[in-house]
Amino acid sequence: MNDINTAHAETTARRLDVIIVGAGFGGMYAVYKFREMGLAIQGFEAGGNVGGVWYWNRYPGARVDLPSIDYSFAFSREIEQEWTWKEQFAAQPELLEYINFVADRLDLRKHIQFNTRVTSAVWIEARKLWRVTTDRGDVCEAPYCIMATGPLSIPKDPEIPGIARFKGELMRAAKWPHHPVSFAGKRVGIIGTGSTGIQIIQEIGPKCGELFVFQRTPSFTMPMRNENLEPGYVAEVKRNYASIREAALNSAVGGVRPQSTRAFFTVTPKQRQVLLEASWQQGGLAMLGTFADLLTNEEANEHVAEFVRGKIGEIVKDPVTAEALKPRGYPIFARRPCLDNTYYETFNLPTVHLKNCLNDKIVEITEKGVRLESGEVELDMLILATGYDGLTGALLAFDVVGRDGRTINQEWKAGARSHLGLMMEGFPNLFMTTGPTGPAALANIIRISEHDVDWIANAMVHMEKHHLAAMEPTVEAEDRWMELVATLAQRTLVSKAKTWYVGANVEGKAQGLTLFTGGFHRYREYCRIAAEGGYQDFTFEPAGELVPA
Ligand code: NAP
After folding, report:
1. What is the value of pTM for the model shown?
2. What is the H or E stretch that residue 197 is in?
3. Is 284 in the pocket of ligand 1 (CB under 6 A)?
4. Most CB atoms closer than 10 Å: which of 264, 437, 464, 483?
5. What distance in angstroms lies between residue 232's CA and the mean position of ligand 1's atoms?
6. What burial class does residue 351 get, using C-beta atoms within 10 Å of its C-beta: 0-12 exposed, 13-18 middle, 19+ buried?
């Protein structure tokens, strides 16, 4: 493959300064940032437009579970003032409208080639360049390559035999059609009860003829208590954006959320109950911020889990269904905590049926529906909301070949490795935004993306200033970072659930929590020290004499 690309590139490669893969939040900001630095850039995006997950995930009920005010770009004071959020937690159409507003306002699209999948990125050592090829025959070369490919961009079908056999409508949450879909009078089945499934179920439950929810592991979900934003509140936010952003940068989650220094067992059981009830009424992720030790103290965590199970029991009328919906066997918040509006209430509808696939396993998908151990459920439509090959999937989906022919596929066989979630030893000038071993899934992805792009830009400026051609972390620095990530992971309960965070949802994938669990604020500090300390964790090669093309 190397040889073929080399031969091709000698005649057709387009020379650039920076190649950016992906046009979600990270890719969009990278395009803007590097263009403003006066660099020749080219973005590639598999989707037909900007937006990343929000371009693809058009399923009914799709909505962000962070406040819109936080879940928005912070780099442009003008955009902050010009855009007005309508809902506290924006739905996908509003998010996509915002994303397109930003792309128009900054004229970003002309730098991005859409409907184009990158098929390989190969480091050409002799010329200190990345050569990137696409499925549309493009060949580009640039000294810098930015993988803004996102932690959740490769959707995953379940390992259930027979999916292709199903003769009804087969829908995938992450590749939802752009046209309206009708559920009226249909027997609809859905597999998957994570954040995505929960949003779909509460939205379509009342609209289907009948809805069959095939649940393996129940999730904990708490009331979102979404509301329209009042003009007075929005004006106040717009006046205070600078301090809101500052607070987000200095928080563990990259957003303004309730946080507490209070340990669970320092207050009486009665007070705990009062605090938990107040947080349930407040909604959003208030509960996670009620006590400081919910992700480290298993016993405290179990008390909160039991509180939520109690709520499920109060809402869901049928005791068997309620019991099946109560998550057990893993700590609350160890899976992504979901926020809902009417999820549990949906199971009180006579047309909504919970199939507990822990007791009654899915055997296969048939032409007509889903066969459980107890028999076949006939369906007109089957929805798959079965998650993603998270964190690493996008980068493992094509050939990324670094120094000496080393590939990411080989390097990550035993689990993802990187330094600061940004770079890998052996892959000079290849940068990731929201990469594995950074805080990716555990903090506001837009704050992380902006931080990462700014860090990369500063590294490039450093290289240009000192006439350096190639940069990569040392093995020792990467080892130290991996050790820190592993040590922190052992202290949190996040690694104690079988989730995409730990690779448990993908057969044969290396298991382990390759996320930085120390908080976004501390992550920023590590990255700042790495740069301001003179990039001592990195090796550089002088520009010198490069072999011409
Ligand atoms: P997910 O959390 O990984 O959930 C996948 C679901 O599919 C799980 O319930 C899983 O059950 C089920 N499943 C997979 N294979 C199955 C099989 N063979 N048989 C039965 N069930 C099977 O995926 P997701 O819901 O798409 O969410 C992924 C992430 O996207 C979230 O954690 C969140 O970070 C993000 N997200 C965010 C929002 C938001 O902002 N509101 C919305 C949607 C998604 P098991 O658990 O038993 O494997």
Report:
1. 0.95
2. helix 195-204
3. no
4. 437
5. 37
6. middle
DSSP state of 538: E
Amino acid found at 127: R
* Residue 73 pLDDT exceeds 90: yes
**Does 65 sit in the ligand 1 pocket, CB within 6 Å?**
yes
Burial class (CB in 10 A: 0-12, 13-18, 19+), 234: middle
Cross-strand bridge partners of residue 63: 91
394: Cβ below 6 Å to ligand 1? no
| Interatomic CA distance for residues 146 and 26, integer angstroms | 10
Cα(195) to centroid of ligand 1, in Å? Answer: 6
Other C-beta atoms lying within 10 Å of the C-beta of residue 3: 7
| Domain membership flag for residue 5 | no
Q: Which amino acid is at 215?
A: Q
Cβ of 68 below 6 Å from ligand 1: no
Task: Give the residue from 439, 398, 431, 441 showing the smallest Cα distance to 151.
Answer: 441
Domain limits for position 115 = 13-154+390-467
pLDDT in tens, 180-209: 999 999 999 999 999 999 999 999 999 999
Averaged pLDDT of the chain:
95
User: Is there a contact between 517 and 492 (Cβ–Cβ < 8 Å)?
Assistant: yes
3-state secondary structure of 36: helix
- The Cα–Cα gap between 467 and 454 comes to 20
Token code pair at residue 53: 């997950």
- Determine, yes or no, domain membership for 235: no
CA distance 12 to 284: 52
Mean pLDDT of 386-392: 96
Pocket test of ligand 1: the residue of 222, 333, 386 to mutate, having most ligand atoms within 8 Å of its CB, is 386
The residue whose CA is least distant from atom 37 of ligand 1 is 195
| Rounded (5°) CA angle 452-455-459 | 135
- Cα distance from N-terminal residue to C-terminal residue, the chain: 18
Under the banding of pLDDT at 50, 70 and 90, the label for residue 547 is low
Tell me whether residue 418 is in a domain.
yes
Overall domain count for the chain: 1
Closest CA to 392 of 375, 408, 405, 371: 408
Is residue 184 in a domain?
no
Strand order through the sheet with 352-356: 169-172, 381-384, 187-191, 210-215, 352-356
Mutation pick for ligand 1 pocket among 193, 195, 377, 444 (CB with most ligand atoms within 8 Å): 195
pLDDT higher than 70, residue 259: yes
Chain Cα centroid distance, residue 72: 15
- DSSP SS3 for 387: coil
- Phi, psi (5° rounding) for residue 218? -70, 150
- What's the CATH code of the domain at 43? 3.50.50.60
